[in-house]
Inverse folding.
């Protein structure tokens, strides 16, 4: 379909064009300039798309909650709302609270945005549009994301505020805990693709890994929710308990940096999920039928998949209530980690049967069937075990809890429960009714 | 490349010196992170991306966090009244100088410094070797001819440490009160959080009794 390798739209390989901009520079200098241009392009894209993401999030959640959302600023759909918000944040005064550890307090917002942006270096937008195709791509992402824990601790400690410090403790507990199932669930596609390079994993998929190892995908998705601190795991900035967590003392654009980093890393997690479990920029079946696709369509495909996953992030946020800290830790260490350990062992054993044989289409078919079967077995087994365990402890009797909730609705109480106690808080003054972001 | 190497080394050394001489413990820990980061950059400059990423993941992402938590539990965090050096500093200085001389001697014996060769001590490996280095590393860990025994022994040792830590941290209470998760790495923060949650639950109870909702 797209055999003309000279056409830029077919390959989206901007390297030669960028290099031809500097005909007189020495090769080393030209490479350095090309690198700098690429870095600026990718980071600017990530920073600017956040403006759109915030608008999208507010609008989508508003529609899901039967509201209209922003609709005044900037034309028809309130498109200019976020631009106005950013302008407001930028014009605010830089405040450093009394007694703060100035170095830690001021460096944390910059470091957290840096870590959020650095991860995009290995993300393949198309086969050729990738910052650098590292052979340790996934490992690089994990190591960078582990640094963001440090930033939260810096912010929490530097603020000289006990709520900030408690929020930072929660964040570290959550991020360090959920890194375990995330890393191990990412080992499953690595075993399947036999590479850690993101390009390699995208290219290795015959059908998307979501349909080969769905349990691994689900565990990764839950861990990604926790790693980015989004609902239902947003208790690290629970307004009703610890005011706003680690960034309570930040204002103006310093707070904006944390907000920015959260959205950039959420979008990155969507892109990562799309690349690893949905094939990223590839067209899968269509490719096999019609042949190679032009790169511009691949780019569109990547964005479609990325925003489809991002939409589910928003959907989850609009749907689920916040969990408690002990529920969060118990769910991780007593359910996710054992499950993912069983999963990785079974995946390694099953895939061991297929090592060293000819990679015919029958081989691919039976490999997919074997992995899918074992995944479904493990997933349903884990769910049955969890239900029995919960019933044995008297925690969850599905029918009864449904009835209770229905009764509560009839009586006019809010089903969301504890968040609303802030409204009639005559007894305890410290849970001031802080409104949510939107 | 030489310039970058010199700058990174200088920053790493400065951060290392600050780590032991800074009076503010928290800042000392931050400087320690900076020196770890410098070492990671040096690994990267030696075309060893896997080592660089491991340095970031293990030393900055895990060990530094542990050190900072340990520091936050010390009482004299914000006081700079303690002397920065104790009575052993002369002996420590002598030992570190001896170690430095030893390292320089050994390294200069193994890798002859040649100013005509690019790179710090030896020419960069071929592209193919660099690309396959991760695969080689992985194979050498599980190959029976190479390091499988050491690798498995290290795994068992880590498992023993993990189980031992849980045994030490496990409180001596009957089983029916053992509902709370006993997780070594997060146990401190979890305890603080549990107290907070309990306090809040106690405070919220009166409001639960208020009939009617809105």
């Amino acid at each position: 379909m797209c055999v003309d390798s000279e056409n830029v739209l077919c390959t989206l390989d901007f390297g030669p064009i960028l290099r031809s901009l500097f005909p007189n520079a020495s090769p080393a200098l030209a490479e350095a300039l090309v690198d700098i241009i690429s870095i600026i392009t990718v980071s600017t894209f990530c920073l600017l798309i956040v403006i759109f993401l915030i608008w999208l999030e507010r609008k989508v959640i508003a529609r899901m909650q039967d509201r209209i959302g922003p609709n005044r600023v900037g034309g028809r759909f309130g498109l200019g709302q976020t631009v106005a918000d950013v302008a407001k944040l930028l014009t605010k005064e830089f405040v450093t609270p009394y007694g703060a550890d100035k170095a830690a307090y001021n460096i944390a917002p910059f470091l957290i945005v840096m870590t959020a942006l650095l991860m995009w270096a290995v993300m393949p937008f198309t086969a050729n549009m990738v910052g650098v195709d590292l052979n340790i791509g996934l490992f690089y992402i994990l190591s960078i994301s582990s640094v963001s824990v440090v930033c939260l601790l810096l912010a929490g400690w530097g603020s000289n505020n006990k709520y900030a410090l408690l929020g930072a403790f929660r964040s570290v507990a959550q991020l360090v805990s959920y890194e375990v199932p995330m890393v191990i669930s990412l080992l499953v596609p690595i075993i399947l693709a036999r590479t850690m390079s993101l390009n390699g994993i995208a290219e290795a998929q015959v059908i998307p890994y979501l349909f080969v190892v769905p349990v691994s995908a689900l565990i990764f998705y839950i861990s990604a929710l926790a790693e980015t601190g989004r609902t239902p795991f947003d208790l690290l900035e629970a307004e009703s308990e610890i005011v706003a967590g680690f960034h309570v003392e930040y204002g103006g654009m310093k707070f904006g940096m944390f907000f920015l980093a959260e959205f950039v890393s959420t979008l990155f997690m969507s892109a990562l999920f799309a690349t690893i479990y949905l094939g990223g920029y590839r067209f899968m079946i269509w490719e096999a039928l019609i042949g190679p696709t032009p790169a511009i369509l691949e780019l569109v495909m990547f964005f479609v998949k990325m925003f489809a996953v991002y939409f589910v992030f928003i959907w989850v946020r609009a749907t689920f209530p916040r969990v408690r800290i002990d529920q969060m830790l118990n769910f991780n260490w007593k359910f996710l980690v054992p499950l993912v350990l069983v999963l990785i062992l079974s995946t390694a054993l099953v895939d061991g049967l297929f090592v060293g044989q000819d990679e015919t289409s029958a081989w691919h078919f039976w490999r997919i069937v074997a992995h899918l079967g074992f995944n479904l077995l493990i997933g349903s087994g884990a769910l049955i075990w969890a239900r029995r365990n919960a019933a044995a402890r008297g925690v969850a009797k599905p029918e009864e809890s449904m009835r209770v909730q229905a009764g509560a609705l009839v009586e006019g109480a809010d089903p969301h429960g504890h968040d609303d106690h802030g409204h009639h808080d005559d007894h305890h003054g410290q849970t001031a009714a802080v409104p949510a972001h939107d | 490349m030489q310039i970058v190497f010199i700058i990174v080394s200088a920053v790493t050394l400065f951060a290392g010196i600050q780590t032991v001489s800074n009076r503010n413990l928290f800042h000392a820990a931050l400087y320690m992170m900076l020196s770890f980061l410098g070492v990671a950059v040096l690994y990267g400059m030696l075309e060893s991306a896997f080592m660089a990423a491991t340095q970031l993941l293990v030393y900055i992402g895990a060990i530094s966090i542990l050190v900072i938590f340990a520091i936050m539990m010390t009482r004299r965090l914000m006081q700079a009244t303690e002397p920065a050096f104790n009575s052993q500093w002369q002996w420590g200085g002598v030992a570190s100088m001896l170690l430095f001389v030893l390292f320089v001697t050994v390294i200069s014996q193994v890798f002859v410094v040649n100013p005509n060769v690019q790179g710090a001590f030896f020419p960069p490996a071929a592209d193919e070797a660099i690309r396959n280095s991760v695969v080689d590393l992985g194979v050498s860990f599980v190959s029976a001819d190479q390091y499988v025994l050491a690798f498995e022994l290290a795994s068992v040792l880590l498992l023993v440490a993990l189980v031992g830590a849980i045994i030490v941290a496990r409180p001596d209470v009957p089983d029916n009160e053992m509902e709370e998760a006993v997780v070594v790495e997060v146990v401190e923060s979890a305890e603080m959080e549990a107290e907070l949650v309990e306090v809040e639950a106690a405070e919220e109870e009166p409001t639960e009794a208020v009939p009617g909702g809105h």
In short: Residues 27-64 of chain A form the longest helix (38 residues).
